[in-house]
Amino acid sequence: MPPPSDILNDPEIAQAYEDVRSDKSETTWLVLKYATATSDSLALDKTGTGDIAEMSETLGDDEAAYAYVRMKVGNDEYSERTKFVFVVWAGPSTKIMRKAKMSFQSAQVKQVIRTYAVEVQTSDKKDLEAEAVTMKLRKAMGANYDRQGTSY
């Protein structure tokens, strides 16, 4: 199987990743998509300055993509933390062969997108709603002080 691309050496992807990670950049997300329906080459598709909802609007039902998103998680401004989410998207109409190649290719993407708190693999945009992703991040962080009805 040929490598998905020179993603490991693509300066545009590396720069977008650094921008999402940097507090000095307004960029809060990036999306990598395949160059064509039959290609294994990945390229930077889009970056943005909005939230995860804005990012998920760029994901098509017949597309496979990888995304990286910066999110703020916390109960108040004093406990707010920046966390990163790695998304592996295979839309509900994505071709079977593309889905089959994705596990191998996502390992290569992770050599570039290395630092994240949670990974979300999905074909359902409901899994990418801010509330659902925030819950995953809180679980990954450990303590969740706003649970309802917890008895000790």
UniProtKB/TrEMBL annotation:
InterPro entries: ADF-H, ADF-H/Gelsolin-like_dom_sf
Top-rank lineage group of the source organism: Eukaryota
Ranges for domain ADF-H: 5-138
UniProt keyword annotations, A-Z: Actin-binding, Cytoplasm, Cytoskeleton
GO CC terms in record: actin filament; cortical actin cytoskeleton; site of polarized growth
Keyword field contains Cytoplasm: yes
Keyword Cytoplasm: yes
A GO MF term: actin filament binding
Subcellular location: Cytoplasm, Cytoskeleton
GO biological process, one term: regulation of actin filament polymerization
PROSITE patterns, sorted: ADF_H
Family: Belongs to the actin-binding proteins ADF family. Coactosin subfamily.
Name of the protein this chain belongs to: ADF-H domain-containing protein
